[in-house]
């Protein structure tokens, strides 16, 4: 039976390690929490995803350009953006286990437990009533379910009020009232709740007196805002236009779990689209649709994505939503689309004393543009693609295979060249073919083990094509091409291999489908 949830997720994580996709950082020193290294296949897959995102922004759209700004920025940047004062998580420690938690996450986990109780009631009733069971009606009328439901709403409201007003004592009281225990010590011996800034800081300058405190950027967007005029002027950009960039971001996440979903060092792919004030909500809708279409064009299984519109908006936004993806551990945020108004540019004007305005030749006037942002985590996108592609298949002959059904243009290795046996001139012939292919594609030559085992190794890393060179190749120049997804094999002229592969792994085809 196909695995789901936690079991599936565990298998994906170990697959990533076993096949050179992702390793724990500094593993020989027992690792560094929530930091990961990408291995030989993982880094290639990640590069391919990044490249696809960048091209779909700057190559397909004439009015979007790419930049690469530095990780270090002037410290005032983070004052202006609000990160120094307001980029906080509420923390609480358990005095017995000495473990630290996010207070809101403890409460959310408690809510999840109540939801679990509702699910149990529903399952029990479904069993009792059989075919005549009406789930919606049961949920709307059953007294116990209604009680649970009302409790959830009450907790959520109380948490929101405390968070919004910054009332940390009330947040702590809620944890006490709900009798939430530490998952490690089982005790209710909690400290006060404190605000904890998520930015990492470091020093620039060699002498401590004149050194400056710098932050490792917690998002790439500010590098775009501070370069807005540089790019607009030197690129002669006309509004509406966008600036895109990919790069590392750093957050000292308290609850760092779920593998590469929440890391302390991660990579973002962000695009800020500068528009005329008053048109931002139309552009917000445009990018909302466009980004969902981008995800769907990657051939994910149906129903894997959904929108989550934000009801409560951040202080700088006048509309915002997430695109959520169904990871093995449930639907979670993959990308954010935010209408950020003129908040960031105005704040940088104020703190820098420099004008960050656009002269609109059509209106013959200057204004601070409004911004619609699309912001996606590259690592989360990697996890979404990998978890959707990962399959444990039962084959007709009773054997099993693990395969990554990756879109061919993203696969790390595109072709494997396999001599059937290690003698009779077959390796030499296979090497000739490799030499013919390797300037166009990342190829792999493999002559070890049976052909079946070699196919399995390539399936496990998502190689879409295996080419087998056998004795017939020496006679008539044909080879066998084997397709990863349906495992079909065909005899083709070896001189046709490159053209066939090129067509199937073409990134331009993928871009055309957007
Ligand atoms: P979350 O609510 O999950 O913490 P966020 O709302 O803080 O995310 P944003 O600030 O909107 O995230 O960042 C944009 C994108 O960057 C997110 O949609 C996500 O894909 C990615 N991202 C944010 N934090 C992390 C992290 N710690 N590890 C990996 N990716 C992240």
What does this structure look like?
The protein folds into 3 domains: 65-87 and 198-387, 2-Layer Sandwich (BirA Bifunctional Protein, domain 2), CATH 3.30.930; 88-194, Herpes Virus-1; 399-512, Anticodon-binding domain (Rossmann fold). α5 packs parallel to α8. Strands 3-9-10-16-13-12-11 form a 7-stranded mixed β-sheet. Strands 20-19-21-22-23 form a 5-stranded mixed β-sheet, sandwiched between helices. Strands 5-4-6 form a 3-stranded antiparallel β-sheet. The model has no long low-confidence stretch (mean pLDDT 94). It contains 18 helices and 23 strands. It is α+β, with helices and mostly antiparallel strands and 514 residues long. The two termini are 35 Å apart. 39% of the residues lie in helices and 24% in strands. The structure holds adenosine-5'-triphosphate (ATP). Adenosine-5'-triphosphate binds next to β10, β13, β16 and α13. The site of adenosine-5'-triphosphate has 16 residues, from β10, β13, β16 and α13.
